[in-house]
Each structure stands twice: as C-alpha cells, then as structure tokens.
Design a protein that fits this description.
This protein is α+β, with helices and mostly antiparallel strands. The chain contains five helices and five strands, in the order H-H-H-H-E-E-E-E-E-H. The chain has one domain.
Amino acid sequence: MKRNDRAGSHLFFIEFIIVLFFFLIVSTVCLRLFARAHGITQRADALSHAQAAAASVAAVMEDLLSNSETKAAKLTDSKSDSTVSDSSASGSFDAENFLQTAAEYLPGAALTILPEDADSQECLAIFYNEAFESCAADDARFLLTAKITQDGQESILSISVTDYDHDPVYELSVALHRPATRKEALQ
C-alpha cells in the first residue's frame, strides 16, 4: 500500500510542476504586454506634449506677425519710422530679429546654432525635461527647435520636437504671412 501512496504523490508533484511552468509562461507573457503598453503610453504622452508645445510656439509666432502694426514694424528691417527698407517693402522680414522677438515671449527659449545643423542656421531652441517643463540643456530630455526659411515671398516656419536620441517626436511646418504695415500698403 505504501507504494501506491508514493506513486500518487509523485504524480501530484509532476502535475504541480507542470502547473507552475504554465503560470510562469503566462506571467512572462503578461509582463511583456504590460511593458509594451507602458512604452506605448509614454510615446503617446510625449507626442501629446510635443504637439501642444509646437502649437504654442506657432501661435506665438502667428500672434507676433498679426497682432499689431508696431510689432510687424519691429520685425521688419526698417530702422526708422520715416523710411521703409527694401526688404520690408518687398514683404520679407528679418528672420533672426523675428526669432529673437519670439524668444522674449516664450519661457525658456533661446537663439542658438545647433551643432548637428548642416546649414548652420540660427534657430529658436527650447529644452524640456521628462514632464515637458522648460529646463536647462543639461537636464533636457526633449528639444524643440523652430527655424524660418524663405521660399520666395513666403516664409516657412519649421518646428521640430526631438527626444534625447535625436529621434523626431513631432514636426510642424507653418507658412507665415506677415501683414503689410500701413506704410507698406500705401506705397
């Protein structure tokens, strides 16, 4: 009789090991799914914050161009109220002066030339930490850059948000229209 009890206990332990192995496999799969879901959530959160930051910068730039005649006059190359320079008469504006003015309105913004920029064009840069709050460059996890390129009469504002590995998170291109000042319209 003792042999039958032993055989039954061996089968119980084998069954118990098989059940443990099954739960080990199921828990491994579940942990991988939770890790993947966490990564997707982090990317979606970063994308949401990046979109909001880029839209905020674009709105400030649009407001600077269209809000008042004095702001528009400040952004042109004209140096005095009585004369209008050739570039402001042609409808273009000084991009560097425009970005400098925008940097005054955006918290944490500064003009810089990025080392990885091939054309060495000055751009507006804002560094963000993990919570998408503006911070110093040493603590940054995300970088928002805004550049203005001239395409004939049209100015294109390119806003890009990248992570610390320089992988793009969000990109936005906006065509800028600077309304003519009263003096430009009367000429």
